[in-house]
Write a structure and sequence with these properties.
16% of the residues lie in helices and 38% in strands. It is an alpha+beta fold.
């Protein structure tokens, strides 16, 4: 994974400080961890966007004036609901020799043979899984091989994902990541093809006799 470095500056907290930072092209944030108090920071919006794209969820080196370089991971990111620009970001400072727990996205590769049937639909059960590893071993994603889906009954479980060395998956291995099901149209067509029940198989339920007829039989 490509080395990513971000420059950050300490910032003062106040009622209007965050708004002023955003107006001038910055993003307010905070960095915490490694038994240190949370420190408010500000970063350049454009540099931050490029850095997050290159890091792809991995370790970022953070440089601040007169302070040692930190190794950080993104812990929380807030975006504007309509413009989608970054409003605030939290970083966790980590040690490169201590394992961390985090969620890693799952992607798929290959083609599912069962999907040659146009009535089949691929169903995704999980978007990500939790893993534990050293910061330097954090994978960009884990891979599910769709070529194992040959019938509608096949599934891909968490324990069947491709996991690189040094990474331990914490999510339950029996959780379904991908499965296949019939589309609604396919299910309706299959139901219509079921043979109707023959008259011999129909259970006959006797109708209740009229009250007058029942009383006449008693006499």
């Amino acid at each position: 994974m490509e080395k990513v470095t971000l420059k950050a500056e300490p910032r003062t907290t106040g009622r209007h400080s965050n708004r002023e930072i955003r107006i001038t092209g910055g993003v307010p944030g905070v960095v915490y961890g490694q038994h240190a108090e949370a420190q408010p920071i500000t970063l350049n919006r454009k540099a931050l966007g490029l850095g997050l794209h290159k890091a792809a969820g991995g370790v970022i080196e953070m440089e601040m004036v007169d302070q040692p370089t930190l190794h950080v991971l993104v812990r929380e990111l807030q975006r504007h609901p309509t413009r989608h620009n970054i409003l605030h970001i939290d970083f966790l400072a980590v040690s490169m020799t201590e394992k961390v727990k985090l969620h890693v996205p799952v992607v798929h590769e290959g083609h599912a043979p069962v999907m040659t049937n146009a009535d089949m639909v691929l169903v995704r059960g999980l978007d990500s899984v939790e893993v534990e590893c050293l910061p330097g071993d954090i994978p960009e994603h884990l891979v599910a091989d769709l070529s194992t889906l040959a019938t509608v009954d096949d599934e891909i479980l968490v324990k069947e994902l491709k996991v690189p060395a040094g990474v331990r998956v914490l999510t339950d291995g029996n959780h379904v990541v991908y499965a296949v099901t019939l589309s609604r149209a396919g299910a309706e067509e299959e139901a219509a093809e079921v043979e109707p029940t023959t008259p011999d198989e129909v259970e006959v339920v006797a109708k209740r006799k009229p009250k007058e007829e029942a009383e006449a039989e008693k006499k």
